[in-house]
Amino acid sequence: MSVDAKLAELGLTLPAASAPAANYVSTVLQDGLLHVSGQIPFDAGGALIKGRLGEDTSIEQGQEAARRCALGVVAQVQAALGGFGRVERIIKLGVFVSSTPDFTDQPKVANGASDLMVALFGDAGKHARSAVGVAVLPLGVPVEVDAIIAVR
């Protein structure tokens, strides 16, 4: 089943690939690797998701934010490659979780992004990952996700 069909089956719509917010580019394709800049979470209506784990955001809300970030990554892939046919494998996700010093469930939050990649790309979606707690993220979002993807 294609990625587009899987998105439809999951009831998900890809957002438009966001433009860079500063002096960088959204993606870089070099030597068969597509590097996707960090994506922040927007809900299905396009509103920015804000919060901090361990303070005002639950693990479940953090997982949904991570999933929405992953959708942003997938949208960047589609924009950069013109579709998904050239995606060989999701190599690595970097998941940054805005959290209080005593919050230690960053890996559970990151599963929101990881689970979506596997749901969309199957075995090719299984990846290495970092799940890192940080004090603050841009615009007060709870999660940011970047990616490295192998391209044919």
Write the layout of secondary structure elements.
Layout: H1 3-9, E1 27-30, E2 33-39, H2 59-81, E3 87-98, H3 106-121, E4 128-134, E5 143-151
Parallel strand pairs: 3-4
Antiparallel strand pairs: 1-2, 2-5, 3-5
Helix pairs in contact: 2-3
Cα-based radius of gyration, to the nearest Å: 14 Å
Low-confidence stretches: none
Provide the CATH architecture. Answer: 2-Layer Sandwich
Structural class: alpha+beta
The averaged pLDDT comes out at 97
- From N to C, what is the helix and strand string? HEEHEHEE
Strand order of the largest sheet: 1-2-5-3-4
Cα end-to-end separation? 19 Å
By CATH reckoning, the class would read Alpha Beta
Strand segment count? 5
CATH evolutionary superfamily: RutC-like
Percentage of residues in helical conformation? 25-40%
For the sheet with most strands, the description reads: 5 strands, mixed
Number of helices: 3
Shape: globular
